[in-house]
Amino acid sequence: MKTLLTSLTLITAAISSSFAGVIVVEGKYQDKNLYIQNGYAGNGVGFCTYEVTINGKTTTDEVNSSAFEIDFSAYQILPGTPVIVEIKHKDDCSPKVLNPEALKPRATFEVVNINIDKNGLLNWSTKNEMGSLPYVVEQFRWNKWIPVGEVQGGGKMDNNSYTFQTTAHSGENKFRVKQVGFSGAAKTSDNVTFVSTVPQPTYAMSKDKADIKFSGETLYEVYDSYGNVVKRGYGDDLSIQTLGKGSYYLCYDNIMADFAKK
Q: Of the four listed, 137, 154, 206, 211, which is most buried by Cβ atoms within 10 Å?
């Protein structure tokens, strides 16, 4: 009797251990399916995966093949819905998720409204965000778009509202917001502009050639002759004491100039 019980215990343990592995993939449905490379069990009998669940519910996807697809649309899951996928498999093998990035957020936002007031306060509202991604606020100056701030996206399908206090340069200012998805694909909003009454600053080299003094606080960048940024900051005093001899390009306010360090 004892031998029989021992045998049954060993058989039960073997069955339990052969179904011990779980691969979990979490994210939000991005209107894309998951593709699984399955393969055979380690003992060569049957396939590795034996069950797949989405948010705790067993799917009807056919898992008894060397590769299969997890079709979210078959379960009436709407884009932007949080999902937890569990791929249960035998412990002597492991299936592979070929495109786990399918549940990672993409830049899908649509701007409902974007504007900027006379004080430089940027406001925008969006819909159709299928995941929380940061919004990068960009300003056009020195003939290029440069990042000037960041606001974390809410990730909701509707009623997302944001504000960001910008820092203006003299004259016309142009701003936009941008998101970059997990795959590296970016999406930008339309531009908004306003005219600032901030006076245009001037600059002068100090007598000892160690500093550049601005007549007012300003954003600035200094490039060497090869186009590399060697100084970047905000203020009314720019130290150039550590720069080597040569020609440099100075970008400040909305102006581009050049100077030589001797």
A: 137
Place of tokens 């215990």: 9
Q: Spell out a b/e string for 75-108, using b for 16 or more CB atoms within 10 Å of the CB, else e.
A: bebeebbebebbbbbbeebbbebeebebbbbbbb
| pTM for the full predicted model | 0.77
User: Which whole number is the average pLDDT over 240-259?
Assistant: 94
Encoded tokens for 48: 């590795």
| Lowest-confidence pick of 16-25, 44-53, 215-224 | 16-25
In the chain, the DSSP E strands lie at 21-28, 34-37, 49-54, 57-58, 67-70, 82-89, 96-97, 110-116, 121-127, 134-141, 144-152, 160-165, 171-180, 186-188, 192-196, 203-205, 211-223, 229-239, 246-252, 255-261
What residue has token string 């941008």?
178
User: If you average pLDDT over every residue of the chain, what do you get?
Assistant: 89
Q: Report the SS3 class of residue 25.
A: strand
Calpha distance 188→22 (Å, rounded) = 38
* Arithmetic mean of pLDDT, 231-243: 94
Cβ neighbours, 10 Å, residue 11: 10
Which tens digit of pLDDT belongs to each residue from 113-161? Answer: 999 999 999 999 999 998 899 999 999 999 999 999 999 999 999 999 9
Q: Are 248 and 261 in contact (CB under 8 A)?
A: yes
